[in-house]
Amino acid sequence: MTSLDPDSVRAVARKDFEDAVRSRTLLLLGGVFVVFFLAAAFFFTDLLGTAGGQGQGPQLTSNSFLRSLSNVTRLLVPLTGAVVAYASVIRERESGSLKLLLSLPHSRLDVLAGKLLGRGAVLTLPVVLGLLVAVPLFPVADIPFDAGTYLFFTALTVLVGLTFVGIGLGASAAATTERRAVVGTFVPYVLFSLLWGQILNRATQRLSEALDLQQQGTLEAYFLLRALNPLAAYKMVASNIGSPQAQLQLFGPPSRQQAYVQQFGELPWYLTDGALIGVLVLWIVVPVALGYLVFEQTDL
Length: 300
Description:
- This protein is mainly α.
- It is 78% helix and 0% strand.
């Protein structure tokens, strides 16, 4: 079995990162995220904060800002991860530079691991920079700021972005053309961001009919399948920041929320923050592992 060579992995990661710097991808992403997070923080601290201070709305805190922000970051950051990663292997394969890379003392496993680190860094740095640049607006606007939850949200947002770096890298490693890599990367994004709710309702209904599930079994199947969506897993954890009850709103209309409370009383283990974060980690590791299995057997 091929083992990782740390020096080789670092060399590939460094090359991948430096390529992003030379192509100005890192600069572009940094600018986009800095502007986005600054604009979002300014809107909340200036407009909503003023309304809250005048008694016209809820008092704003950094936690409420993060919960609202997650509605956008759950789509924007994973999409960025997909764009960063989808061509990471296949484009070099089609250009012939991948053969040159593998002619050096790098195994295919080293290449994938290095590209995961390199592309992950290309995503991580702009996201972290953008969120950190927005921090001074809170004390300036005299809005309560929780540094611990802010750092947790930053790490969580990076993690959900890395899920699509993993999906994109796995698709890129397994694909034989760039078009197939695009399909393998962006079809899951569309599925998870737009279609999962419809699929989930139909799948739950059919499972209930096929297995003759009672109400509790149907609810358990619904919430378990919902938790397997990395974007939904991220949103559920983010909604818990400073307000655990807010997570109930993600489970559907009030009737479904009430049924959830009556049946479970407390969160099942697979809806706890730890389990949901584990789902995100799996969505990074598993696609890359599957992509490697195909990539290892591919004749370049």
